[in-house]
Amino acid sequence: MIKHSRWLVQDSQKTEQILEKLQAHFTLEPMQIQQETLTFYDDFEWRLWKKNRLLASNHKGLTFFINHLDLNVYRAEPVPSYAENCVDPQLKAYVSAHTDIRRLFPMADMEVEYYQYALRNEDLKKVCDLNITQTGLGAMLELSGLRGYEKEYREALGVILSSEPDSLERHIFQLSLELLAICPTCYSRRPVFIMGENDNAATALTSIHTTLWQNVRLNETGIAADWDKLFLHQYRVALRRSRALFTQLKQVVGIEASQYFKLSLGDLARRTNTLRDLDVYLQRQDEYKQLLPQQFHQGLDELFSEFANKRKLAHRSLARWIKSPAYQSKIEEIEQQLASLDFKESKQALQPVQKLAAKRLLKSYEKIVAQAQLITPQSVDDEIHDIRLEAKKLRYLLEFFTGLFQEKQARKSLKTLLKALKKLQDSLGDFNDFAVQREYLEHWISSPDIGELENHSGAQSSDSIVAAVHALSGVLFVKQQDQRLDAEIQLKAFIENDMSLALAQLYLKPETTTLPAHQKD
Amino acid sequence: MKILACYSIKGGVGKTATSVNLAYNAAQAGYRTLLIDLDSQGASSFYFRVRSGKKQWGKRFFDTYESLLKQIKASDFDGLDIIPAHQSFRHFDVFLSDINKRQRRLRQVLKGLKKEYDLIILDCPPSLSYLSEAVFQAADMIVVPVIPTTLSERTYEQLLEFFRDKDLPVGQVYPFFSMVQKQKQLHKTTIERMQSRYKRTLITQVPFSSDIEKMGEHRTPVACFAAKTAGGEAYLNLWQEIQQQLESL
Q1: Domain CHAD: where (chain A) (predicted)?
Q2: Model pTM?
């Protein structure tokens, strides 16, 4: 069995002493001495850092991935930019597991020295490896024994331990970066809204919209620079959540303010629709190809090449808008409106947020259940789409207010609801996606875009695109029909897993719980 | 996992140098390799500076693979481990004589190591014995170093005869020329004759080289101190040729 131990030694003299002591027992052969500058990379959300992972490059082809205390070295790697650009499949899997499609940015540089020694016995056979990684913080000593040389490993271990080195909980790179006052962003795509159960609705709403608005603003630069597609996605999510907050809690902010935010935030989101749609379709390129036989692939390739061109234009236009004085002035206007929200007029603004949240959750849930009960195989698709929208509203409410309910039973109920809701939303979302995709593609081939293409690339090109789109639309239609059946099953399951009593408990004191309206005979 | 044996009835033909250098090159090529030094003289172990423990463990060699696991030692090179020879290996034939189905026993025991290793190389002692029979049954490929002389050729013929007598798979035996001195007419004519007679003769010829002799001084594979010499390159080529054969098995 191969043994491995690590320690931190902050006093350089102590490291020297350890080496001297080891020399009395072994022949210490320096194998490698190296000095270099490492640059550490992370995504916009610092997700590697937050998960105790580090990604570093020496800019000479070596990339290091540190998972807690373990360090893996990858050779002939390009400077990190996106997970998909990593050459080694293992590194690619590690990085993409945490950063997905996000752009990787340099976050810090560090000077590092490595010393590698072989500890040899009287035959000059290597029996242990000793690696020393030196940073500004100190030295990390790593001793590993070779298989079959456990006795020698224990001997070396004893020598090192006699110098009482500090134990090491995390990798020296991480500790050293902390020393460099690395300050990860507090940005989170799923922010936790800080509020107390005794806060009133106005305070809670302010806390939520402040956080969401920060997220809107923090994504602007990334969208304009087109660093990765998630900047736009998360910008839109933050806008959508804000909009849902102001519309769902319109009694708290007042009808007029609610209407203002609904329109203004909606306008901002609408500006990004084209780019987002194209991003989604381009992302599905491979998926679409798998759905169609080879004969349509050329048409699909041409279609996606067109989408890629359109995307460039759409991005240019959006970036111009975000940098424009008109956008800035719109933002300032919204920020002024947010700052001047007046809750005095509203009675609901002063009531405890927990009570309001419980009431809204129950109402929203009951609305979905009532609508779902009316769904039959004969119901039109629009009725299912309406439920999808209601489910989304309930999901937002849960995201806003779940933190308010700390009591064990309440947390359990909300967790169960969230799980059931997610399953339902996934199914309804897929059903909707197939419909939207078909509509978009069919609309695209009947729009002036296709005529434009005919002028540029000839009628043959447009014909193959039209054929591919019709074929794809047909496949998507079949998938949509299948998904409709699944959606009906999921709706039935959602109703059967009755949560109304549990939600009522959140609102009413346990001893006064009464059955919700729809459960009374 | 593949098992490669380096074998010759005759001593001093370069079996150990071959085993050591093939093991090193295999590990460098990414094969998780285990070299088992079956020769109680322990020359392979010496080249890698690995010593066996004091315990007389040879008796347990054919028990289970767990007994082997305890004896594995890492070499100085990544991906290359060694089971060093022990003096008690001299009595292998005595131990094997007491075992039922002794011919299959070595293969059975080595099978247990298939999760850990891609390649096992057996450095065999020069004899025809129970052990060599067990080696022939265990190995997927047997490479036989032949010095291109009349006596070595005769020894090789004796080996093939033994295979036929015992109904062993002759097709797994691959001779190659070792310690070749091209300037010697005898070597030239022997090589030509054997090449036309034995179609499985490997193309690579390992020259007689002072660099290979110096392995004993350096106690390391030739590639570690003289990779670019004729000897170093010959063992690399030999490994690549054997690798192709192993992959096709």
Answers
A1: 195-484
A2: 0.77
Domain count, chain A: 3
Dist CA B80 CA B35 (whole Å): 7
A125–B48 C-beta distance less than 8 A: yes
Nearest-CA residue of chain B relative to A31?
A: B76
Reported ipTM: the value is 0.88
Choose among B108, B51, B119: nearest CA to B80: B119
Say yes or no to pLDDT of A460 above 70: no
The DSSP call for residue A437 is H
The mean pLDDT of A196-211, rounded to a whole number, is 89
Q: What chain A residue is nearest to B47 in terms of C-alpha separation?
A: A125
For residue A171, give the nearest of A12, A49, A43 by alpha carbon. Answer: A49
Which chain A residues are Cβ-neighbours of B219 within 8 angstroms? Answer: 124
- Please report residues of B whose CB lies closer than 8 A to that of A146: 73-74
Phi-psi region at B205: left, alpha or beta (left = phi > 0; alpha = psi -120 to 50) = beta
Regarding whether A128 and A23 lie in a shared domain, the answer is yes
CB A152 within 8 A of CB A145: yes
Separation CA A368–CA A484 (nearest Å): 17
Greater model confidence, A489 or A344: A489
Find the mean pLDDT for residues B228-239.
95
- Tokens 């999510």 map to which residue? A237
Q: Is the pLDDT of residue A337 over 60?
A: yes
pLDDT by residue (tens digit) across A321-334? Answer: 999 999 999 999 99
For residues A238 and A372, membership in a common domain is answered with no
**Residues A373 and A435 grouped into a single domain:** yes
How far is A93 from A158, CA to CA, in rounded Å?
Answer: 38
Residue B239 to chain A, least CA–CA distance (Å) = 25
pLDDT at B63 over 80: no
Q: Are the CB atoms for A487 and A428 separated by under 8 Å?
A: yes
Is residue B36 within 8 Å of residue B123, measured between CB atoms? yes
Q: Do B49 and A123 touch (CB under 8 A)?
A: yes
Q: Give me the pLDDT at residue A402, please.
A: 85
Flag if A148 and B72 touch (Cβ within 8 Å).
Answer: yes
Greatest Cα pair distance in chain A = 91
pLDDT computed for residue A511 by the predictor: 39
B52: closest chain A residue by CA:
A148
Chain A residues with CB under 8 Å of B73 CB are 146-149
Selecting from B49, B73, B219 the residue whose C-beta is nearest the C-beta of A148 gives: B73
Please report which residue ranges of A57-148 form alpha helices under DSSP H. Answer: 89-99
CATH number, domain of A209, equals 1.40.20.10
Mean pLDDT within A251-275: 94
Residue A498, pLDDT above cutoff 80: yes
- In this structure, the answer to whether residues A312 and A403 fall within a common structural domain is no
> Does one domain contain both A247 and A169?
no
Q: What residues of chain B lie within 8 A of the CB of A118, using their CB? A: 76
Kindly state the tokens that stand for A340.
Answer: 């001047």
Burial class (CB in 10 A: 0-12, 13-18, 19+), A436: middle
Say if A185 falls within a structural domain.
no
Say what the pLDDT of residue A350 is.
85
CB nearest A125 (choices: B50, B71, B72): B50
Q: What are phi and psi of B149, to 5 degrees?
A: -130, 165
Same domain, A233 and A368: no
Per-residue pLDDT at A450: 66
Minimal Cα distance from A148: which residue of B? B73
Q: In this predicted model, what pLDDT tens digit does every residue of A372-393 receive, in sequence order?
A: 999 999 999 899 999 999 999 9
| A400 touches A208 (CB < 8 A) | yes
Q: Please give the single-letter amino acid code of residue A225.
A: A
Confidence band for B59, pLDDT divided at 50, 70 and 90:
confident
